[in-house]
């Protein structure tokens, strides 16, 4: 049963927002895990924590900017102080660099994107490795379908996410002998608040129903639908669970068949 996949495990989730971050926390809780929630927005953390607790699991919130080394240390310390162990880490926090051609994008903005998307994830992972090693734990990096195309203006974002993939693979090689699995998932569009707002904006601009914008985008996928947060999160639950005990160093695309890899 799904409710047993992460039974009594402790999972740390960074970047808890209203879309995928919330979905990750709730699907892990439904699978039986207690959750350590990290984000900058304290109100949102409290809301998601209550939802986790309503599912019968424990939730601890840690307001934190993962670009701040001291905040990451506090996050790791709080997780261990609260539960005494960590079984899983989901690096979900991200930043989208300016969507401009590489020939024009500001180099400092590209560098800032690497700080959040890659180096912050590495920092938090390194802090939790000793705890994960004790539990034979697992790390999942949230990547993006931007890996699969080279559309203009997405270059800086693709650079950061490609670096995250390379980091995942190398960490898998380094940490595998210590019993820690490291994987990544690459979602495409996720049908959550931000995308709904964006599609509504496009619809109003074109003078068409939002459903038409949705259908046009869904038509590019094999399943003719855009994944919802819980569907993407379930792939992460799998990666964290014993069902994936022989899976490491891999990237699992979760995009309803928009891209094949």
From TrEMBL:
Protein name: SDR family oxidoreductase
Molecular-function GO terms, alphabetical: oxidoreductase activity
InterPro entries: NAD(P)-bd_dom_sf (IPR036291), SDR_fam (IPR002347)
A family per Pfam: adh_short_C2
Coiled coil: none
Keywords: Oxidoreductase
């Amino acid at each position: 049963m799904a409710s047993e996949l992460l039974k009594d495990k402790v999972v740390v989730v960074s970047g808890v927002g209203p879309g995928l971050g919330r979905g990750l926390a709730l699907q892990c809780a439904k699978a039986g895990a207690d959750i350590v929630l990290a984000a900058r927005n304290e109100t949102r953390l409290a809301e998601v924590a209550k939802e986790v607790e309503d599912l019968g699991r424990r939730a601890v919130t840690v307001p934190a900017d993962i670009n701040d080394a001291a905040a990451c240390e506090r996050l790791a310390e709080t997780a261990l102080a609260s539960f005494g162990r960590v079984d899983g880490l989901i690096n979900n926090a991200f930043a989208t660099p300016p969507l401009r051609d590489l020939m024009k994008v500001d180099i400092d903005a590209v560098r800032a994107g690497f700080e959040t998307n890659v180096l912050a994830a590495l920092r938090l992972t390194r802090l939790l490795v000793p705890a994960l090693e004790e539990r034979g734990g697992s790390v999942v990096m949230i990547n993006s379908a931007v890996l699969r195309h080279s559309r203009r203006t997405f270059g800086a974002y693709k650079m950061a996410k490609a670096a995250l993939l390379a980091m995942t693979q190398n960490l898998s090689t380094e940490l595998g002998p210590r019993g820690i699995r490291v994987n990544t998932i690459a979602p495409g569009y996720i049908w959550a608040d931000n995308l709904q707002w964006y599609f509504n904006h496009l619809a109003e601009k074109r003078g068409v129903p939002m459903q038409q914008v949705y259908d046009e985008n869904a038509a590019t996928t094999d399943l003719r639908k855009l994944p919802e947060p819980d569907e993407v999160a379930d792939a992460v639950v799998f990666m964290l669970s014993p069902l994936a005990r022989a899976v490491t160093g891999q990237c699992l695309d979760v995009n309803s068949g928009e891209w094949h890899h």
